[in-house]
C-alpha cells in the first residue's frame, strides 16, 4: 500500500472529485431515494468508480471511470462509448461527453450543474479551465479508497444491524459507511443535505484523502446527533487515535495505522465509545457470530504503509 499525500496529487484529485460529481448528479436524478442519501453513493470498481446500473424508463445504463486505463465508459444497454481521461481537458468537455452521450441514447436527465459540498463552487456544464490528470497518482488515490472500503466492509459485514455499505460519497469525496440505530433525531438546522443525512441516530465510518490543511489521509468516525463534548479518548485504539470534541469526530491518521488490525481496533473502540455516549441499547447483539459455515481465510497480509 503506497500512501499519497494531498499535496502530491491535489490537481488530479480535484479532477476525480469533479468527475465523481457528474456521476453523482446522474444518480441523484435517477436512483430511487434511500435514507442517509445512500442511493447517490458511487460504488468503487477494480480501477476506479462507477454509477452502477441505473434505469431511465426502460433504458438501463452505467457510467464508469477507469483511472488506470484513462478511460470513461458510457454503457447504454448493449452500446458502449469511451472517452479519454487526459491532462488538460476541461470539466465542460467531460460533462458534455458523458451527458451528451446519455441524452443521445434516450436517457432523460434533469441535472443541477452546480457542484455540491465543495469549497469552490463550479458549474459542471460550463467550466472551461483545463484540468490536470496524472494516471499514476490517480491509481494510488483509488487504491487508498479501495483499502478503506475493504477495512470498513470487513468490520461492518458480519454485524447484525442496519447499515449503509462502504461507497464513495461524491460531495465530500470520501469513502464512508454507516451503522444506523433507527431512532429518529431530526437535524436541528434547515440544511437540505444534512436534514436527510442526519435524521436518525447513526455512526459513520469514513476515510478522507486530506486537503490543504490536513495533508495526509485520515480515517474518521462521527456520531449523529453530534456530540460536542469531551469523551474518554484513552479508550480508543491504537494509541495514535483521538477524539476531537470541537468536531465531534474520532480520528486516526492512515500513516499511523498501516495494519488492518489497527484500523479495525479503531473502528471497534470508536463504536463502543460513541454508542455508549448516544445511549444505544442492545448493541451486543450486533456482534453475535453468524450461524453460517466458515469461509476460507481471506485476510490480506498486513503491510506497513
Commentary on this structure:
- By secondary structure, this protein is of the alpha+beta class.
- It has 2 domains: 6-135; 143-287, no CATH class.
- Helix content is 28%, strand content 23%.
- Strands 1, 2, 3, 4, 5 and 6 form a 6-stranded antiparallel sheet that branches.
- A hairpin with a 2-residue loop joins strand 5 and strand 6.
- Helix 1 (6-30) packs parallel to helix 2, helix 1 (6-30) crosses helix 3 and helix 3 (135-156) crosses helix 5.
- The longest helix has 25 residues, at 6-30.
- It is globular.
- The mean pLDDT is 95.
- This is DUF5996 family protein.
- In DSSP terms (H or I, runs of 4 or more residues), the helix count works out at 5
Please identify the structural class as seen in this structure.
Answer: alpha+beta
The Rg value, from CA coordinates, equals 20 Å
Number of distinct beta strands: 12
What overall form do the CA principal axes indicate?
globular
Low-confidence stretches: none
Distance N terminus to C terminus?
A: 5 Å
Structural domain tally: 2
Largest sheet: 6 strands, antiparallel
H and E order = HEEEEEEHHEEHEEEEH
Helix content bin: 25-40%
Mean pLDDT: 95
Beta-strand level of the residues, as a percent range? 15-25%
Amino acid at each position: 500500500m503506497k500512501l499519497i499525500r494531498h499535496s502530491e496529487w491535489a490537481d488530479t484529485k480535484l479532477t476525480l472529485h469533479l468527475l465523481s460529481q457528474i456521476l453523482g448528479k446522474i444518480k441523484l436524478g435517477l436512483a430511487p431515494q434511500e435514507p442517509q442519501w445512500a442511493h447517490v453513493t458511487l460504488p468503487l470498481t477494480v480501477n476506479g468508480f462507477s454509477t452502477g446500473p441505473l434505469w431511465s424508463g426502460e433504458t438501463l445504463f452505467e457510467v464508469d471511470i477507469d483511472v488506470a486505463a484513462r478511460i470513461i465508459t458510457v454503457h447504454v444497454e448493449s452500446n458502449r462509448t469511451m472517452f479519454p481521461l487526459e491532462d488538460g481537458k476541461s470539466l465542460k468537455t467531460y460533462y458534455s461527453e458523458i451527458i451528451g452521450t446519455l441524452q443521445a441514447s434516450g436517457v432523460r436527465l434533469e441535472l443541477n450543474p452546480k457542484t455540491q459540498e465543495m469549497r469552490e463552487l463550479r458549474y459542471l456544464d460550463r467550466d472551461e479551465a483545463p484540468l490536470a490528470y496524472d494516471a499514476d497518482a490517480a491509481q494510488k488515490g483509488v487504491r487508498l479508497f479501495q483499502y478503506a472500503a475493504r477495512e470498513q466492509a470487513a468490520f461492518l459485514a458480519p454485524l447484525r444491524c442496519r447499515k449503509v455499505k462502504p461507497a464513495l460519497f461524491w460531495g465530500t469525496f470520501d469513502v464512508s459507511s454507516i451503522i444506523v440505530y433507527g431512532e429518529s433525531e431530526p437535524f436541528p438546522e434547515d440544511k437540505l443535505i444534512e436534514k436527510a443525512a442526519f435524521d436518525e441516530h447513526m455512526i459513520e465510518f469514513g476515510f478522507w484523502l486530506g486537503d490543504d490543511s490536513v495533508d495526509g489521509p485520515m480515517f474518521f468516525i462521527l456520531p449523529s446527533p453530534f456530540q460536542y463534548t469531551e469523551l474518554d479518548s484513552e479508550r480508543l485504539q491504537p494509541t495514535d487515535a483521538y477524539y476531537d470534541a470541537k468536531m465531534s469526530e474520532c480520528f486516526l491518521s492512515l500513516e499511523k495505522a498501516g495494519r488492518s488490525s489497527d484500523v479495525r481496533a479503531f473502528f471497534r473502540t470508536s463504536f463502543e465509545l460513541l454508542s455508549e455516549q448516544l445511549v444505544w441499547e442492545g448493541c451486543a447483539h450486533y456482534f453475535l457470530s453468524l450461524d453460517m459455515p466458515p469461509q476460507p481465510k481471506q485476510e490480506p497480509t498486513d503491510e506497513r504503509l
